[in-house]
Amino acid sequence: MESSLMAENGEDKLLAVARHIAKTLGRTDTMTDDILQIFSTFDGRFSREKMSEKIDENDPRSFAALELTLKSLDRQISQYVSADQPIWSNSVDSAAFLNTLDELISTIKDWDPISGEKLIGSCLDRADDLLQQAMFRLEDEFRLLIERSGGGGGESFELNRMSGADSDEEEENDGDEDSIPVANPISDYDILIDALPSGTIADLHQISKRMVGAGFGKECAHVYSSCRRDFLEESISRLGLKKLSIEEVQKMAWSDLEDEIEKWIKGMNVALRILFPSERRLCDRIFFGLSAASDLSFMEVCRGIAIQLLNFADGVAISSRSPERLFKVLDVFECLRDLMPEFDDVFSDQYCLFIRTEAAAIWKRISESIRGIFMELENLIRRDPAKAAVPGGGLHPITRYVMNYLRAACGSRVTLEQVFQDNSDYRNPDNTERSLNSTSLSVQMSWIMELLESNLEGKSKIYKDSALSYIFLINNGRYIVQKVKDSELASLLGDDWIRKHTAKVRQNHVNYQRNSWNKVITALKLDNNSLPQNVAAKSIKEKLKVFNTHFDDICRTQSNCVVADEQLRTELRNWITGNLSPAYRNFLGRFQTVPELGKHADKYIKYSVEDIEHRINDLFQGNGGSVGGRK
Amino acid sequence: MPATDYQGSSVPFGALGRSIMSIRRDQVHNMEGNHDSSVQEAELELFQKQVTERFQSLVSCNEELLSLPWIRHLLDEFICCQEEFRAILFNNKSHLSRPPMDRFIGEYFERSVKSLDVCNAIRDGIELIRQWEKYLEIVLTALDSNQRTLGEGQFRRAKKALTDLTIAMLDEKDSTAVIGHRNRSFGRNTTNKDSRPHGHFRSLSWSVSRSWSAAKQLQAISNNLTPPRGNEVMATNGLAVAVFTMSSILLFVMWTLVAAIPCQDRGLQMHFSIPRNFSWGASIMSLHDRIMEESKKRDRRNASGLMKEIHQIEKCARHMTELADSVQFPLTEEKEADVKQRVKELAEVCETMKDGLDGLDPLERRVREVFHRILRNRTEGLDSLSRPNHPE
């Protein structure tokens, strides 16, 4: 009803204006009449009766009506504009102010088409001036509303509400960056925060609607984004995130960087899952129906923080590739991967497109950096010097390191598969055999195993005693196979790999036996009995001597031989005693039957069967000290 | 494997990329071993020649020194040099890990990491200019010639935007000094209750900490940058010359960006000299000298950036402010014509910055491109350094 009244009122004004024009321009009655004629054919509202009826008496009054309206608006608006108290501190005031403002805007709109008329024009200039002042005031009210309710001013701060912790802590010293308390970690990201109360949001929307409508959208968006940006910046620094340059990240001590990465991951989750979506929602509500202003403001709010967060990942991506960094860098990769949908979602409009593109590019760089870390691991293996072989042929630290490293890495198997997926084998693209039926990750893993084995083979060659070489290979080979078998590596490397390597270990076993024990056992082989007795006695005596020498040799050289694996140690000993003891017992039996030897057996027989077994049982413990003659 | 071209590339590098690829294919057979020494020599000579030509073109081009189109031109030439250098590294992989080349290349990569931060700071700086542009747009809207009249209200609006612009342009230097000018429509009686500059005056958030300094960063890039000695050139088959060339270009380009565009703690004092025997040295030194000269001009000494368009913004804003301060209402016809003229100038500056080819957006993309190329070059370099040529 009100609006129809207003429309009627508007029409009256229009007619008054038209009459005024006709009268002013028409210096003679005929001219005025002509002008009125033109008007009447132009629009039905300007019909001759309507125009002529009150033309003389109403003209000044109608113009006066505009003047009167403006005067009244001026009085009301000026009163508000100069008020010291915020208009929005009182809802009656704010509603009245908005009503007055709307009236002003519609008056300007109504009279604008005929503003060419001088008197009206100057009236409208005053109206414009008034509008300008009102808009300035609106801008300030808008800012104040945001600041008062926990926005950019920084006096009060609401992030704690979402952390569900230390919410009482309101007071703090502004401006002192060090004193910004760190928000407690949160585990539930499935929340949005209402940084502003809904009443305030509604008020802000009322203001933004007027400002955008009156052509002050830029000012409004600017105030909005600078306030919210401050809020967001503070929220991020509350999470303990510092602004770090790429160089700073690169030079940071690893332990510090680890801490930073952890904070960053939390910060990313809070930012992408809570802060940015909350900002988006707030922006959409305040600029409801004004999507261009909303999108632009949102971008301005988030841009700096988004770039700051991504810059850190860039710094991580190009920092050192030393292998121990793998696990934290994998965390960064996973964080970005998991947040990609959030990036796509929250930064979906055209203004924010670049943030999405950046995030995807940086994610890719992190993946490159992980591949670089594996390359570093390869170098580390390849360059591990051969002379660094361990004494006693025991388990080499590099074997232990690499195997445990890979096992741990396999804890992130799915992630690593993604990392290596889109990347063809960069080392030897012509090797087609390997890439058949296997994922890039398993190619990578078997390649590292190959490097490790060839490094170990190099190391095995520096033992002077070949038996030690074999022990070394057995020890390390067996460790490798065991570590593979009971981990994800088994499925990555495959059954064939395990079979092949188990066989390899067994082969080394055989080689070891052949190499060190065969000649001892051979020494005990008895000739057939057809020899003359004295010759036979001499031969047996000789054999025993050879046996003793060989056995002592082996025991001496292998005295510090280490077999760390209990089971393997037992296996080896059992094999040796199982082959050696019967042969030796048999030999001793024969020895006793030779008359001239049997009498002086003690003189020739250095070891009893038990002694032999005892000494064998002393082997592979790495305690070279316990070697000694008979006990 | 060389990485594929950066997808966001807006530069027609396809042709160059292809030629590099074909060079690679040709070299693929001997890349493991000795890159044919005469081929290599020719390649290095060609690089010197190309760099010389590129920088000569920057000296003698039509674009005005330090204008947006000129900076774009500079970055294009940089990207080309970078690609040529990358091809050289690729073709001489086997030499890179041998001393003293490993040291030279390592130093180059360190400089390039430092330059990444400069690129990021410049990106912030471009965003800052965009914020200034927004104030100019408000002025344009306020004083639009399609307005019915130019009344007091419009001028008040324009003046407010101009004041905000002035404050924003001083922002990084001293924002509190000008706070008194701020045009607040209420609360005047209760001023000084809150002297802290409001968010309103913080034009944007910098992505680096407050202590970061462009001047120090440039200093760090330039540290120990000296031409290789004769024996070093010999020992590296001349590659050290290419590395020195690229390092100098990198330094010069970063220095120019810092000179042109606002960023934290700009400082142009830097020892920079190129011996005469480098054919490209003269052009770079001449550009360097001209930029230094520019920075010493009285009206540019305190500028937040030497970019021509920033100068124009300052000039336009100043003229407009003077004009706005002097007008009386109603406007005389003469004044109105003045205003129209100033508005036209302002509109032109805004147009320049919005330009699809030479505006701020393409510049930012170009700076990003430089960032990505530097990064990729480094990654590839590190890969080939750490990967032995003959796996055992």
Automatic annotation (TrEMBL), chain A:
Protein transport listed as a keyword: yes
Similarity remark: Belongs to the EXO70 family.
Pfam families (UniProt xref): Exo70_C (PF03081), Exo70_N (PF20669)
Chain coiled-coil ranges: none
Name used for this protein in its record: Exocyst subunit Exo70 family protein
Biased composition (Acidic residues): 166-179
Function of the protein: Component of the exocyst complex.
Stretch list, region Disordered: 155-183
Gene Ontology annotations for the cellular component aspect, listed alphabetically: exocyst
The organism of origin for this protein: Aquilegia coerulea (Rocky mountain columbine)
Example of a GO MF term: phosphatidylinositol-4,5-bisphosphate binding
TrEMBL record, chain B:
Subcellular location(s) of the protein: Membrane
Keyword Ribonucleoprotein included in the entry's annotation: no
Membrane topology classification: Single-pass membrane protein
Annotated TM spans: 239-261
One Pfam family matching this protein: ROH1-like
Domain R3H: 333-392
Chief localisation class: membrane
Keyword presence, Disulfide bond: no
Sorted UniProt keywords: Membrane, Transmembrane, Transmembrane helix
Any one GO cellular component localisation term in the record: membrane
GO terms assigned for molecular function: nucleic acid binding
Family: Belongs to the ROH1 family.
PANTHER family registered for this protein in UniProt: BPS1-LIKE PROTEIN
Name the record gives this protein: R3H domain-containing protein
